Amino acid sequence: MAAFTGASSTTLISPPHLSRQCLASTRISGLKMVSFSNSGKSNLPVSFRRLQISCAAKPETVEKVCNIVKKQLALKDDVSVAGDSKFATLGADSLDTVEIVMALEEAFGITVEEESAQSIATVQDAADLIEKLCEKDSA
Amino acid sequence: MAFAMRVKVPPNSATLQEARHRTFDFFRAACRSIPSIMDIYNLYDVVTPSQLRSTIAAEIRKNAHITNPKVIDMLLFKGMEELSNITEHAKQRHHIIGQYVVGNQGLVQDVATKDENISKFLKNFYKTNYF
């Protein structure tokens, strides 16, 4: 546990060695969680220490994804695209989904692997995946 | 003869699911090569990458009703051949523009102003026998 930094403020960046296993479980639930880091002085007992890793996508990323989805599926302006709307309900077939992923790849400058691309079903999934890849690129 | 021996054909897909998978792989490969295609043929002022993506998707969708995996494999082989011809600059700019940019309404002379006043009947008549 010495890996935690001494910063006393809450951080939103997940520690790398925890990110993988927690993102896998939390991405499915899609909940927003905030991480607390140790105050650095003494190690608190395990019962008091709550470790939660954040995996929320930033709102502007979700906004960008929504715009791309709208343009791709040629939706009218009154159709609302929220974080949890599935692509299938918006009228996209599987080829549309792949096309949307490619459009996101181009817009954000990332490369999505094949297995990750198969698991994208909603707008929130796509936004989270983009965040994860952008973090990995900038790290 | 030598060319036929050089091209390796992967074994046929066993199921429709595998053929779908190969279709998406082909689509992804095509989309990833769009930037280099636009660079080779200098299409920056003519078309945007998203328009090219939708053209490719439309071509794939034209055959979306096929259910025989072997036919799908054959179509993918032809698609890969076309894609490699384009990326290795075996085609020229007017080929790309005519086949993938101008679209399905017709060739450039139909899009021009001369034909805008002809009647709908004539347009349909030129297009097809059955309307």
Notable traits:
heterodimer, A: 139 residues, mainly alpha, 5 helices, 0% strand, globular, disordered N terminus, B: 131 residues
Can you give a write-up of this model?
The complex is a heterodimer of chains A (139) and B (131). With 139 residues, chain A is mainly alpha-helical. Chain A has helices at residues 16-29, 59-73, 94-108, 114-118, 123-138. The longest helix of chain A has 16 residues, at 123-138. The model of chain A is unreliable at 1-31 (pLDDT under 50). Chain B is mainly α and 131 residues long. Chain B has helices at 2-6, 16-32, 34-41, 49-62, 69-87, 93-101, 108-111, 120-127. The mean pLDDT of chain B is 84. The termini of chain B are far apart. Chain B is built from 8 helices and no strands. The A-B interface holds A 71-72, 94-96, 98-99, 102-103, 105-106, 114, 117 and B 20, 23-25, 27-28, 31-32, 49-50, 53-54, 57, 60-61, 64.
Compact overview of the structure:
Chain A is mainly alpha-helical.
Annotate the secondary structure layout:
The complex is a heterodimer of chains A (139) and B (131).
Chain A: H1 16-29, H2 59-73, H3 94-108, H4 114-118, H5 123-138
Chain B: H1 2-6, H2 16-32, H3 34-41, H4 49-62, H5 69-87, H6 93-101, H7 108-111, H8 120-127
Distance, first to last CA of chain A: 21 Å
Order of helices and strands of chain A: HHHHH
According to DSSP, the number of beta strands of chain A is 0
Please give the radius of gyration of chain B in angstroms.
Answer: 18 Å
Strand content of chain A: under 5%
Portion in beta strands of chain B: under 5%
Count the DSSP helices of chain B.
8
Estimated helix fraction of chain A: 40-55%
